[in-house]
Amino acid sequence: RSRERRAPAVLMMAEAQLCGLQDEITCSVCLDTLTDPVTIPCGHSFCLKCLTDCWDQSQECSCPQCRHTFTTRPELNRNTLLNEVIKKLKKTTLSSPPPQNYTGPVDVECDFCTGEKFRAVKSCLTCPASYCQTHLQPHCEVATLKHHKLIDPDRNLNDKLCEKHQKSLEIFCKTDDSCIYTVVQMGLVLRI
């Protein structure tokens, strides 16, 4: 593949990864973004061409992913919903400027990258740390991390902590000129 054609696919995968859709839009046969996606009775989706080629070269029709074997060759119907999602991701990715992966002088860098630092795409007030697309992934997938407060990248995360309690600021009361944040302890929710 040429670099020009590969770049949008890489950008779309990165954007899909942020949305938690990377597995859903990737064909497990060619490992690329689905093209003419079809869904078979076991629920897995593949490129029409990839699945047709697999089944044409084999004695039996089985799912390339879960290995479920079908007694008769299933009719392949295009998954129009999945196809529309992929089209929209492509359109969004192609219409937005390509992200700069490495940090520049004004960018916030990822706190977890080693060596060359990647540009942070989000900062977490709960952790507090800044994350590139790759290191942000657990915050999208792990149940306990999904509840963390993510904001646009911010290099001054310590300024967003209460000096007295070292907790992330959630609300500031102008009347009392004081910070209010939630403390969850032994099942009780307290406002301090």
Automatic annotation (TrEMBL):
**Its Gene Ontology molecular function terms?**
zinc ion binding
Q: Which UniProt keywords apply?
A: Metal-binding, Zinc, Zinc-finger
**Which Gene3D superfamilies does this entry report, sorted A to Z?**
4.10.830.40, Classic Zinc Finger, Zinc/RING finger domain, C3HC4 (zinc finger)
**By its UniProt entry, which PROSITE patterns does this protein fall under?**
ZF_RING_1, ZF_RING_2
Record Pfam families: zf-C3HC4_4
User: Where does the RING-type domain start and stop, copy by copy?
Assistant: 27-67
Question: What are the TM regions of this chain, as residue ranges?
Answer: none
Query: Highest taxon of the source?
Result: Eukaryota
> CDD domains this protein is in?
Bbox1_TRIM8-like (cd19802)
The protein, known as: RING-type domain-containing protein
